[in-house]
Design goal:
This protein has about 250 residues and is mainly alpha-helical. Helix content is about 50%, strand content about 10%.
Length: about 250
C-alpha cells in the first residue's frame, strides 16, 4: 500500500523556508506559498466538496476512460509498435504524487532513449545553460534524450494516452492538477495542500493555458485554483479546450 510522502500541514513546510547557511529564504519554496497569503486562515473549498460531486467526477472518469481505451485501442497498438521499433521498453513508468500525497506510477509511452538518466547527467554537468533551464522548470526545450518518434508523441501529447489506465485504476482523473514529482513538493509550498485534494489529471488548466510556455508560479496557481473551484462544467470546458490545444500543438515540446 502506498504511503503519503507528506502528511503534515502548510506550517511544517513554511518553517523550513529559511536557508540556514546564509540566513536568506529559498525563493523556490516561498513563491508558491506567496500565491495565497491567507492559506492558513482560509479552508480550501475542496475540503467540503459533496460526496455526490466526487462520485459524479469519478464515474465520469471511469466511463469516458473505458470508452477511450476501447475506441483508441488500434491507435494504441500502432503507437506501441512504433515505440518498440526504436528499442527499449514501450511503456515508461514514473513515480508521481497523487491525491492525499500518495505515490503512484504514472504511465506514458516511452519518448526517451533507454539511458536517459545518464544522458541528462552528462548534459547538466557540461552545459551551464541547460542546467539553469532544468533547475527552473524540470524541462529542456532541446532535450537530447528525446527520440525521433518521441518528439512526435510529445508535441501531439499522444505519449500520455497510457494514463487512461491510471484513470481506470483510480490514481488519476481525466482533468486535474499536473502530476508532480516528489522534488516539486517544495516548490508548491502551501499550495501543495490544495494539490492533494484531488487526483492529478491527464489534462488540466495548465495544459490548456500555454503548457511549457508559462512560468512555474503560474502552473502552481492554476493547480491551486482548479482544486478550490472545481466543477463538472469546468472539466467539460477543459476537455474541449484540450482537443483544440493538441491540434494546435501549443506549448508542447
Amino acid at each position: 500500500m502506498s504511503m503519503p510522502v507528506y502528511a503534515g500541514t502548510a506550517r511544517n513546510y513554511r518553517s523550513s523556508f529559511r536557508n540556514t547557511s546564509n540566513g536568506t529564504h529559498d525563493w523556490w519554496r516561498l513563491h508558491a506559498a506567496a500565491i495565497d497569503r491567507n492559506f492558513v486562515r482560509q479552508r480550501p473549498a475542496g475540503l467540503f466538496r459533496a460526496p455526490a460531486e466526487q462520485a459524479t467526477k469519478l464515474l465520469f472518469d471511469l466511463i469516458l476512460a473505458a470508452l477511450l481505451v476501447i475506441g483508441l485501442s488500434p491507435a494504441l497498438l500502432c503507437l506501441a509498435a512504433l515505440v518498440r521499433k526504436g528499442g527499449g521498453k514501450v511503456i515508461f513508468g514514473h513515480k508521481r504524487i497523487g491525491a492525499y500525497g500518495r505515490v503512484f506510477t504514472c504511465w506514458k509511452f516511452r519518448t526517451m532513449v533507454p539511458n536517459a538518466d545518464q544522458v541528462l547527467a552528462r548534459v547538466l554537468a557540461s552545459d551551464a545553460n541547460a542546467r539553469a533551464e532544468w533547475e527552473k522548470d524540470f524541462k529542456l526545450r532541446d532535450d537530447p534524450r528525446i527520440t525521433r518518434v518521441g518528439r512526435i508523441l510529445r508535441t501531439t501529447s499522444l505519449d500520455e494516452l497510457p494514463q487512461l489506465f491510471n484513470v481506470l485504476k483510480g490514481e488519476m482523473s481525466l482533468v486535474g492538477p499536473r502530476p508532480i514529482v516528489a522534488d516539486e513538493i517544495r516548490r508548491y509550498g502551501a499550495a501543495f495542500h490544495d494539490y492533494t485534494l484531488c487526483r492529478p489529471g491527464i489534462t488540466g488548466a495548465w495544459q490548456v493555458s500555454g503548457r511549457n510556455d508559462i512560468d512555474y508560479g503560474t502552473r502552481v496557481r492554476l493547480d491551486q485554483d482548479y482544486a478550490r473551484r472545481w466543477s463538472f462544467l469546468t472539466d467539460c470546458v477543459i476537455l474541449f479546450r484540450t482537443a483544440v490545444t493538441v491540434l494546435k500543438r501549443s506549448g508542447a515540446y
